[in-house]
Write a structure and sequence with these properties.
By secondary structure, this protein is mainly alpha-helical. The chain contains 6 helices and 2 strands.
């Protein structure tokens, strides 16, 4: 019994000595900012023509309705109806949410490489973020 408690104490000391310090507020803030979506690149979204260049997975027939909705919404944006305070922004968010739900279906995720899922998820989040910017 003494051996059990001695080993347990030794393990607890080892774990305590090798435990990482909790992240600071600055580290948590930096991590949060790095997880935020960024704007789409020019290869993903042509701002001069408002054409979205969809990743292959999002060209699948399961995404057709949302993809067509988003293509139309981005194409029809005007300086008066764009940005985070516009009606089109709410519609863009709704279509992106729907696309995320379709992407997140269990049968789809089970047959998809993790890297592909993360890349497509990031694309959809960035597309939703792109909708918050006004057209010039």
């Amino acid at each position: 019994m003494n051996s059990y408690y001695a080993n347990r104490e030794a393990r607890d000391r080892y774990v305590a000595a090798h435990r990482e310090a909790p992240p600071t507020e600055q580290e948590l803030e930096a991590f949060g900012k790095s997880a935020e979506p960024g704007r789409l690149s020019n290869a993903q979204f042509d701002r001069s023509t408002n054409v979205i260049h969809w990743p292959g997975l999002l060209r699948d027939s399961d995404f057709t309705s949302d993809r067509q909705t988003l293509d139309r919404l981005f194409h029809d944006r005007t300086p008066d109806d764009s940005g985070s305070m516009s009606a089109s922004y709410g519609q863009i968010q709704k279509a992106c949410d729907s696309m995320m739900q379709t992407l997140g279906k269990k049968d789809r995720i089970e047959h998809m490489p993790t890297v592909t899922f993360i890349g497509v998820e990031h694309f959809i989040k960035s597309l939703a973020y792109e909708g918050s910017f006004a057209v010039k």
